[in-house]
Specification:
Helix content: 40-55%
CATH class of the largest domain: Alpha Beta
CATH architecture of the largest domain: 3-Layer(aba) Sandwich
Oligomer: single chain
Largest sheet: 6 strands, parallel
Number of helices: 13
Strand order of the largest sheet: 3-5-6-7-4-8
Number of domains: 2
Shape: elongated
Low-confidence stretches: 1-10
Radius of gyration: 30 Å
Structural class: alpha/beta
Mean pLDDT: 88
Amino acid sequence: MEHVQKSVVFDASMQNRKKQSIDEIMQETSVLSILRQAGLSRGFVEDHWIDFLDYVGELNACKACPGLAQCPKNFKGYMRLLTIDQGEVVRYFEACEQQQEDEKKRQAMNRIQANVAKNLLETSFKDIQYDNGGNLLQVATALMNQITMPSAKGIYLHGEMGTGKTYVMAAFCNALAINQKDCAFISMPQLLADLKSRFNNPGEADLLAELKVVSYLVLDDLGAETLSVWGRDDVLYTLLNERMNRQLPTYFTSVYDLAMLEQHYTMNKSRDEMIKAKRLVERVKAVSVPMELVGKNFR
């Protein structure tokens, strides 16, 4: 008799916990939506309690998401969801929002050709600190406007070191890629080093040819490369001249304004040198409009 009484008490306790559990399940908006679409009610949840219990538990785990890298699930980045098909519960997996965002970023990175560290290109406009005591926000706004209102001219962004020129241009490339636009972010010093390394590898793709036709090109740290006639005339001038002819926008970062840039690329005082430097700067003007970034040094 005592055993029977304990069984009855246990069964009643279980039924009470089940009822409380179902009460909580019925508070979940997505459960109500699933039932409404299938024309079903609470009774269906009672008949499939464990399925719905697991489903809500999955949702709650994702609401308290610690981040994709710390995802505790066996299938990281995926949610086990539930639907009803012809009166039967169907369980399936779907990428969570973080996984979808991560995949979107990976796809975007494939649209950026670069010779700089990948983490730099993961910079977004929302990551930037705009309280620089200057016009960083205005520069970012001008770049964002170029995504929604494309132009044949990019921006020649010049200013003191450490003011954020490289980072705001990296964010620009990131935004371009997310908007499914092909672009390249190229460090000028590294570009010349890369081109030199390919002299003895004629079978490799022509890097310069690729940069001539990419939809959007950012040349970072213009003027910081080692000066040479080859770099100025055969690489930079040729590249910009082709992009000018194709009416493709080019973006720059540099510590030099355009007048200083012309002086920088004039390697001696001969008339021929002055003409070549002036001709190069004219190509810079043809593919971009100058804009100065002013503000505090973030470094």
